[in-house]
Amino acid sequence: DIVMTQSPDSLAVSLGERATINCKSSQSVLYSSNNKNYLAWYQQKPGQPPKLLIYWSSTRESGVPDRFSGSGSGTDFTLTISSLQAEDVAVYFCQQYYSAPYCFGRGTKLEIK
Amino acid sequence: EVQLVESGGGLVQPGGSLRLSCAASGFTFSNYWMSWVRHAPGQGLEWVANIRESGSEEYYVDSVKGRFTISRDNAKNSLYLQMNSLRDEDTAVYYCTRDHIYGDFYDHWGQGTLVTVSS
Predict the structure, then answer these.
(1) Can you give the pLDDT of all 119 residues of chain B as single tens digits?
(2) How many Å apart are CA B16 and CA B83, to the nearest integer?
(3) B40 and A CB contact within 8 Å
(4) B104:A50 CB<8 A
(5) Which DSSP category does B67 fall into?
(6) How many helical (H) and strand (E) elements, i.e. helices and strands, does chain B have?
(7) HSE-up of A7 (CA within 13 Å, CB side)?
(8) Under a CB-based contact definition with an 8 Å cutoff, are residues A53 and A67 in contact?
(9) Which residue of A has its CA nearest to B48?
(10) Considering only CA atoms, which of B34, B48, B47 is closest in space to residue B107?
(11) Which chain A residues have a beta carbon less than 8 Å from that of B46?
């Protein structure tokens, strides 16, 4: 199984500042035949189901604000929120879909400082 | 608007059974792979099972193989999860999810249904 490790477990950032969340996979999720990273990011607000933010490590889902961006390749990935808004308070998860079982990270809780 | 509405959760004793249902609307159900994903208290999200558009293929995480069965009825736009021989560690919120057309990640989620396994 591909194990996904997120860091930090929690993060407090001031409004308008940058937030950075890291995700590391135990093996590469880069598929050589199409040069795509099989890595997605989700946002989960209290009392709500997760919401897809990013797939292919850097492609924003339709309707997701452009302050959210994803980067990285192979085994190391980053979700960046360029200017934190109050509505971004949530838990963020990464997920690999390179091979079954499609494992998620444990989550990073993002709060306002 | 895509909607996924789960039902069937509840309290069950260890060794018992439950059947979860998911009613889908707002899209052509028969065109999509579907999955169940669960979230146990204090744990991360866990993919449980998925099923092909036609229902001809299904896959499971090792921890539920032989105990859980995923199925679908495309005529009723419904997804199911039959859970047998339930264990304490199956306690979780179970989400019905639609797989994205590009791969095994999830672009729509239901609100979830809570399954509690306890004596």
Answers:
(1) 999 999 999 999 999 999 999 999 999 999 999 999 999 988 899 999 999 999 999 999 999 999 999 999 999 999 999 999 999 999 999 999 999 999 999 999 999 999 999 99
(2) 8
(3) no
(4) no
(5) T
(6) 0, 11
(7) 5
(8) no
(9) A101
(10) B34
(11) 101, 103-104
